[in-house]
Amino acid sequence: MKKIKTLVLFCLLALTTVLCACTDDKAKNSDSITIGIAQDIDDSLDPHKMVAAGTKEIFFNVFEGLVKPDSDGNIVPAVAESVEVSEDKLCYTFKLRNGIKFHDGNAVTIEDLEYSINKFAGRSGDEPVSSAFLNISEVNVVSDDTIEIKLASADPAFLSYLASVESAIIPKSNTNPDGVCIGTGPYKYVSRSPLQNVVFEKFDGYWGEGGNIKNVTFKICTNPDTIAMELEGGTIDMCIHMTNGQKMQLDKEKFNVYEGTMNLVQALYLNHDFEPFNDVNVRKAMNYAVDAKEVMDYVSNGSGAKIGTSIYPNFGKYFDESLTSVYDADIQKAKDCLSKSAYPDGFDMTITVPSNYDQHVDTALVLKNQLALIGINAEIVKVDWDTWISDVYLGRNYDSTVIGVDAANLSANALLSRFTSDAGDNFTNYDNPEYDAAFSKAISASDDENATKYYKECAKILNDDAANVYIQDLPDFVALNKNFEGYKFYPLYVLDLTNIKAVK
Length: 504
Hints:
This protein is of the alpha+beta class. The protein has 14 helices and 21 strands.
């Protein structure tokens, strides 16, 4: 009898422990989430200096501009509660949101707006985050809660430039924005452990509805082979930008998988300062040699959207579907183009690719095989993300690279400005006077119809000139543990944490 009582007591204690553990887990899940990301963040915490799309993607939750995009692609008020546009479209008057605070608890002032605008627009000695801001002629404080921005010429897309992380409002009093991160968004930056994690916390003083999860940890998962295992093991609760292969490994009973597109222009980007990529016949040969459908079949089981220039389908009116078929795979045409160049028998080249992105590595493998059919011998060089940023993006010391380029805002300018000859982010060293002229007409157009016309002309020039080997807007698979819900895709490369919440 004593043994039976002891056994019963042990079972009750064990059951109590399990129930407590479940309760603790439920409470933990309500308060925190761990999200797997493929790359570490940029060294700078200054939004006006952030380079990598992955960094801006998560800091969308920390920093806000005068306006911001919503999940439907609309531009909505943020730090500014309202905006008035003059009839001639040359003056934008913003009213500061009443009671809005920075993450350090200080009120946002009109001086902070003036400081930030001048800083990200390159009016204080820094480089502008976008060439579009060179169009700003004046920034004037009208009153304690009102500021106006005057343009030299009308630009219908001007508001969209302000709706990005790079156009964030930050405190004038922060003398070290590179190292001290202070924004106005629904989440505030807490800490970073290089190559390990980035930690955010819900900002209770947020002006808007704010987030549902209190603590968010972004775990750096640079090894794509372990992603599914980490999800299944509970090390991470969510993972963004998964491959089709990773998705297939998941237990459907434990995870919801959301499918969309990444809003990226994935291409084999060519360095035009390096031979033989300064030869249009070589570039056309490479375009005809590449079969985008075969790439998509291998990389993502056919998912994704084929593209033919530096605009992806979610950009709607700027996307010209006819350009997707200009360079349909044709080995004979590829060989004919190559025969007109100084390299009729082919050449050797390298494809530098960031090793933490399976999609880009797999794409490079297919391209290597396809290019070999016309005598182009491509060596794949896999590098870590920091090396890619320093050597390829900033150093421009590479032959070619497979990467996805995102749009910082909802204007075609965001995708096309980097190909102007004097753009600071023109990492392909593309230089075409015809393109520069068309782009100049686009940004100086007095109405949206004409601006769209010239932006589409820019996109066509990139296609005609075979500026790069354009492939696809990659499919996007996001896995979320069924303890959570609410993930939403945006028409931009951003992750909005505010919609995610624990399942009750």
